[in-house]
Write a structure and sequence with these properties.
Blueprint lengths: L1 E6 L2 E6 L5 E8 L6 E7 L4 E7 L7 E7 L7 E6 L7 E8 L2 E2 L4 E4 L12 E4 L13 H7 L4 E4 L23 H11 L3 H7 L4 E3 L15 E5 L7 E5 L4 H12 L14 E5 L2 E5 L13 E4 L2 E4 L10 H13 L4 E6 L7 H10 L4 H8 L2 H8 L7 H13 L5 E5 L19
Parallel strand pairs: 11-12, 12-13, 17-20, 20-21
Antiparallel strand pairs: 1-2, 3-4, 4-7, 5-6, 5-8, 8-9, 8-10, 14-15, 16-17, 18-19
């Protein structure tokens, strides 16, 4: 905004900058009695969320916090003392100035409640050229979901590197990382969903660090020729930035241990969700491959881990102690047990898979992709499945991403049902 001030016969322009919303609001961390609201402004400000059970706001509660300037003036405001399975409306004030827009969400059913709970799942958005269009979210909105789960690769910001020569992975630049959160929240179709639907999220490789990423490095493959494969080390501080960016720029649930990642769980009625971080503590993928001559072979390496010991123990303890009827386990990569047979087919040149791959793409490309899934972490994979069997843990359903397709497997091949 520009004002003109007359002073001693001179017209001087005076620039007055006001605080505006850059991204949000977005609701996450929803339970039967609480929620969190994310918002980002262009300048430091005091943000207030006013919430009520009807649009008159005659009886409302207000929750206030200041923005976090080191993280792009983002803020996450906890909202508490809510009632289960209730539709709430909320609006935003910036420095006591009421903003346009009235938004809504529904709290989750209480723990002991049985009934329908509708949620949608997505992964691998924002491919191709900007501006992005995601019409699938218009379809989701028609189903009036009580939750949207984003299970990884929420965009592909990993375009800053020049591999294999430079490992300038995007989270090494905190400013770029923060701008990408703003970008993903600004997609038209997703904004419409977020104005009425809570969201939960866990990153996978592309939105954590780079393709096929792990705790300390990213696996680099020459897909277009017979070149070698190798691990590229992550830049100093990049892993910490990725975790901190999530912590400050997404309305998350309580995180048990942010030194090991962003894994967490939450309850909705008779469902419990266990959201695994399969990147922050992962061993390097290529540790599971051995080269003999010009060929690579899989080897089952002790201590080769996707979750890390702390997260694995948290998960096993949590799913064992859960009294929820349905137990949904979120994984950014495929859990399907039958992927192991594909590795065997490649190594033993069994038909028909081997002939198909030889004619279409390099065998090495498929093998290195398979070891990025749970098939490449067989000892830990077996440990989880055996634990569920020994403790008679029933009604476990995997929710995975990274496949760039939608399908449902009933568990006959994959050991557990998986979507």
């Amino acid at each position: 905004m520009k004002l003109w001030v007359l002073l001693a016969g001179l017209c001087l322009p005076v620039f007055c900058w006001s605080q505006n919303i850059l991204s949000g609001p977005i609701v996450g961390g929803v339970t039967a009695n609480a929620a969190s609201v994310y918002l980002q402004t262009n300048l430091p400000a005091t943000i207030e969320v006013e919430i009520a059970s009807d649009t008159s706001f005659q009886t409302s509660s207000r929750f206030q916090q200041t923005t976090n300037e080191p993280f792009g003036n983002a803020v996450i405001i906890p909202v508490q003392k809510l009632e289960p399975l209730t539709t709430y409306f909320y609006r935003i004030r910036i420095n006591d100035s009421l903003q346009t827009g009235c938004y809504q969400f529904q709290t989750f059913p209480a723990k002991e409640t049985n009934g329908n709970f509708t949620f949608t799942v997505g992964a691998c958005q924002m491919r191709g050229k900007d501006p992005f269009s995601e019409p699938i979210f218009n379809v989701m909105l028609k189903h009036k979901p009580q939750l949207f789960l984003e299970v990884g690769d929420w965009g592909y910001p990993d375009t800053t590197d020049l591999l294999p020569d430079k490992n300038t992975f995007f989270p090494s630049n905190l400013s770029y990382l923060l701008k990408y959160y703003q970008k993903r929240y600004s997609i038209k179709e997703m904004k419409a969903l977020f104005h009425s639907t809570p969201v939960d999220y866990v990153y996978d490789d592309h939105d954590f660090m780079n393709d096929n990423s792990s705790r300390n490095s990213c696996s680099y493959y020459h897909f277009d020729g017979p070149g070698d494969v190798k691990e590229i080390p992550n830049p100093p501080g990049a892993r910490r930035n990725a975790i901190n960016g999530y912590y400050h720029c997404f309305p998350h649930y309580q995180l048990p241990d942010t030194s090991e990642g962003i894994y967490h769980s939450f309850r909705a009625g008779n469902c419990e969700f266990f959201v695994l971080d399969n990147r922050s503590a992962r061993s390097s993928n290529l540790d599971a491959l051995v080269k003999k001559g010009k060929k690579y072979y899989y080897r089952n390496v002790p201590q080769h881990t996707m979750l890390g010991e702390k997260q694995k123990q948290w998960f096993l303890n949590a799913i064992k102690s859960s009294d929820a009827h349905w137990k949904f386990v979120v994984s950014g990569v495929n859990f399907n047990h039958s992927f192991r047979s594909m590795i065997t087919m490649l190594e033993e040149k069994k038909k028909p898979l081997y002939n198909f791959i030889i004619k279409k793409v390099y065998t090495k490309r498929i093998l290195t992709s398979l070891v990025d899934t749970w098939a490449g972490f067989q000892q830990e994979h077996d440990e989880i499945l055996q634990f569920c069997r020994e403790n008679n843990i029933q009604n476990v359903v995997m929710l995975s991403g990274d496949s760039h397709l939608a399908c449902l497997e009933d568990g006959a091949m994959g050991a557990l049902p998986e979507m």
